[in-house]
């Protein structure tokens, strides 16, 4: 994340103070800044930002078989906010840590799904919760060969218990409507795949 001392790109924002509230797991800060509104007046504002680092995710697909490879694992934050059982269906993903995005998602995909990615396509970068979370998510897509799949399942030493789901692409799209897939990054990548990606009608007809 950019440091507060270098935040001079927008002349309508003047950071005056940054307080560290928590760094037990990731970093929570409260920032005070002066903001110039569209009518020219200045006000003093405060915002809390949660910095967990940036991440990467990938939609793994088999165009010939018409399938996608997703994961299912327990996510406590969604469990406490009305998700039925916390078992969340999503694309393979993880934090960058000290790696570049491509290296990180290759690592995460192999750990979670057992797929060693070859060709990798960058799709877009998104901020999924811009009101409070600093994370920028690098989104990719990559083909996989079912014959080359490894075990996956995540890293036991990190407490991961990940189920790998191979689903028909049409079924995955239906699961958005039923609420079985409620993860933002996964929904965006599935819809991209249907509209502009490997499962767009013209691409499927070319196979």
From TrEMBL:
This is NUDIX domain-containing protein. It comes from Amycolatopsis plumensis. Homodimer. Residues 51-189 form the Nudix hydrolase domain. Keywords: Hydrolase. Pfam families: NUDIX. The keyword Hydrolase applies. Its cofactor is Mg(2+). SUPFAM superfamilies: Nudix.
């Amino acid at each position: 994340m950019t440091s507060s001392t270098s935040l001079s790109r927008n002349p309508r924002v003047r950071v005056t103070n940054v307080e560290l509230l928590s760094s037990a797991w990731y970093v929570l800060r409260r920032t005070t800044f002066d903001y110039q509104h569209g009518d020219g007046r200045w006000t003093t504002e405060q915002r809390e930002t949660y910095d967990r680092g940036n991440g990467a995710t990938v939609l793994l697909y088999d165009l010939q078989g018409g399938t996608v490879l997703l994961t299912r694992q327990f996510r406590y934050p969604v469990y406490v906010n009305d998700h039925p059982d916390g078992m969340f269906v999503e694309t393979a993903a993880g934090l960058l840590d000290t790696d570049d995005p491509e290296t990180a998602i290759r690592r995460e995909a192999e750990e979670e799904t057992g797929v060693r990615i070859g060709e990798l396509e960058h799709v877009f970068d998104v901020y999924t919760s811009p009101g409070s979370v600093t994370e920028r998510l690098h989104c990719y897509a990559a083909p996989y060969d079912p014959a080359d799949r490894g075990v996956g399942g995540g890293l036991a030493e990190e407490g991961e218990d990940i189920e790998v789901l191979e689903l028909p692409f049409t079924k995955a799209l239906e699961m958005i409507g039923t609420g079985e897939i409620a993860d933002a990054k996964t929904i965006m990548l599935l819809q991209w795949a249907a509209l502009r990606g490997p499962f767009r009608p013209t691409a499927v007809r070319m196979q």
